[in-house]
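Lab notebook, bench 4. Still working through the backlog of constructs that have no structural model yet. Next entry is a single chain of 123 residues. Request: give me the structure tokens for it.
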Amino acid sequence: MSSPIRSRFFLLVALFFALSACSSMSGLSIFPGVHKLDRQQGNIIDQEKLEQLEVGMTKAQAQFVMGTPLVSDTFDLDRWDYIYQFLSAAGTVLEKSVTLRFDENLLVSIEDDSELSVTQADE
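Model written out:
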């Protein structure tokens, strides 16, 4: 092959591989032997922490018990949201959330989504 034809050939091959890499390969997730890990996101919410919370605590005390909230509402600084999500390797999703509300730096309510929400992830 001459040099211009060879360079065009390699350019076409490179272009083919680049475009095929961008295509959807949804079948790859079902290859045998592919190892998936469990994934945890957010604040871990356990019963021990929830039992330590008491109405009348200051924001600093609540933060000491629960940790830094995952979501602080920009428009309502007196609302803290703690959200936890666990995605198992099998595709099961567990979700839990707790909302703390404050008034004048004191905890006034604890909204606990006490039942874990369990769903099957779509993949």
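Notes after review: The chain has one domain: 32-120. The helical segments are 3-22, 47-52, 59-66. Flag for follow-up if needed.
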